[in-house]
Design goal:
The chain is about 50% helix and about 20% strand. It is of the alpha+beta class.
């Protein structure tokens, strides 16, 4: 895999920072809920705290499962991942009251890096619709060469000018914990022999790996 010379330790540190950023909010909410349970006597307040703990624990679990596949080793070198499992993990992480996921991929085993790439493409696409909307995953090709197109449709969908160059994974200038995820997606695409593209199509954003 060719690409910019980023040190392995730097890449690991930046990805860890990204994962911690995702987990701080729900874990912090669990801690706050436990503190309320320990201090409050009002039953209604305690019930609210329990609901907060349950919701936050579910969110934290979904984020951990997603990050384990999207950023982690997820099995031995050369391992394959079931796209059906990837769908379940993606729904748990991405879907909420505002955002829904349409998954048009076949259920089959696919090379680990391609599945990791798909999950990272979903993250990139999801960030273009901060108010929520629909994420649609469609196949490109078939079999071991299966690749993906992710379409994001939502109010005021917009591409950050900083993201497309990061997806090329050609430069590490200015790279930090906020920018590491799209850069990492580009590295995964290169490792899979693919190129990532991102463009507006009418009022939607399309992220494709070909």
């Amino acid at each position: 895999m060719s690409g910019p010379a980023i040190e392995a330790l730097d890449l690991a540190a930046l990805l860890c920072s990204r994962v911690c950023h995702d987990l701080i909010s729900p874990v912090g909410a669990i801690v706050n809920g436990l503190e309320v349970l320990a201090e409050e006597k009002d039953e209604e307040t305690k019930t609210f705290a329990l609901e907060l703990i349950k919701k936050s624990a579910t969110t934290a679990s979904a984020k951990l499962q997603f990050c384990r596949i999207a950023f982690g080793a997820a099995g031995s070198a050369g391992a394959q991942i079931d796209l059906g499992d990837a769908q379940t993990i993606a729904r748990g992480f991405l879907e909420d009251d505002k955002t829904k996921l349409t998954w048009n991929l076949p259920r089959e085993l696919l090379a680990k890096n391609r599945v990791k790439l798909l999950l990272n493409m979903l993250l990139v696409a999801g960030q273009t619709i901060p108010r929520g909307g629909m994420l649609t995953v469609d196949p490109i090709g078939a079999g071991e060469a299966l690749s993906f197109k992710v379409t994001a449709a939502g109010a005021n969908a917009k591409i950050s000018p900083a993201v497309p160059p990061l997806l090329a994974a050609d430069s590490i200038e200015g790279l930090d914990a906020h920018r590491i995820q799209p850069f990492y997606a580009g590295l995964l695409a290169k490792a899979s022999g693919l190129t990532l593209s991102m463009a507006m199509d009418a009022d939607t954003v399309v992220v494709a790996a070909k």
